[in-house]
């Protein structure tokens, strides 16, 4: 049985440590972005900038990408207080994404808009 080359033995632990460092950095980035987004969205009043008789339901998600960054998506719907009517518009989501972009950039993150067809649908956040 051939023995591994000494150079291969030296690279293996370093590669494992680099991967662990990358995963730790991505985890810290995700936690930081989740904290910022959750704090901001929770601070928005449900009736702020909403038509009479409606309240805003804002949902957000932060998930890791394969590039070492995290993706932020949002959805915004205005729900009627008296019926089951729900209204969702793309400009509300875009507005919330832009507010989050400014906030994340103020915290020192690099933010890139993610386009699907012709509109911004998410933010790609790098540390």
Give a description of the structure.
43% of the residues lie in helices and 31% in strands. Strands 1, 2, 3, 4 and 5 form a five-stranded antiparallel β-sheet that branches. β1 and β2 (70-80) form a beta hairpin. By secondary structure, the protein is an alpha+beta fold.
Shape verdict = elongated
- Fraction of residues in β-strands: 25-35%
Major sheet characteristics? 5 strands, antiparallel
* Helix percent band: 40-55%
Give the averaged pLDDT, no decimals. 84
Following the backbone from N to C, one meets helices and strands in this order, namely HEEEHEE
Give the termini distance in whole angstroms.
45 Å
Measured on Cα atoms, how large is the radius of gyration?
21 Å
Output the number of helix runs: 2
Which structural class best describes the helix and strand composition?
alpha+beta
Tally of strands: 5
Spans of at least 5 consecutive residues with low confidence: none
Task: Write a compact overview of the structure shown.
With 127 residues, the chain is an alpha+beta fold. The chain has helices at 6-43, 90-106, and strands at 54-64, 70-80, 86-88, 110-116, 119-126.
